[in-house]
Amino acid sequence: MSAHAKTTDPAADDSSGTAARFTGAVAPAAAWAFVFLLLRILAVSGYDWNTAFAVSTTISFSDGLALLVGTLMAGYLLVAILLIGVLPLLVATLVWSSRGLQAVVVLSTVLAAVTMIALTVSFHLVWLPVAAAAVFGMFALIRILPERSRVRRIFSRAMTSVGWVTGVSVLFVAALVQTPWVPEERIGTTDGTITGYVLSVDSGFVNILTEDHTFMILISGDITSRD
Asked: For position 24, what pLDDT does the model report?
């Protein structure tokens, strides 16, 4: 054997492969998060650039999860409509696709199912699970079509791209829901009452977005009540 022969380290190869997969997953997630944040800022600002710039100064990195959850809750009706298609597709992927065993598919399916249950119970949307079951039944009928069927091929591609479908659906909600990610409040001040959304509370100041997408900065001492 030559003195310069190289040996292969399986542990090193596995480590580099894991690092590559992690890097490949982080980049799309970061891009998705950036687009989601930008769409939310523009949507709640009424797509006014100056207002959007002011709103962006109230958001920090730690607000990411609250912003996502608050958005989905604020646009509950749109979320319910999208769930009619997204949840059956996730369940179909979980049951019939090789991607069904992936953690992201399982987690997304559970999250979507819990969201549907919460919406149905909270807002008495009896039609929501019925409509979702009907869509899943349609998917089951499509699956028994011949493999050469164009409809079945499209359905198979949708299952393969279920992550993209789910992500785009969330971005769709982000772009259309103009209600901010915090509850609406009646804010009593020394000059009267303001109805709006408190985006952040800084030292001595409160940043508010009103119903007509007007950004206001109030002095904390001028606020008499918040309901």
From this structure: 45
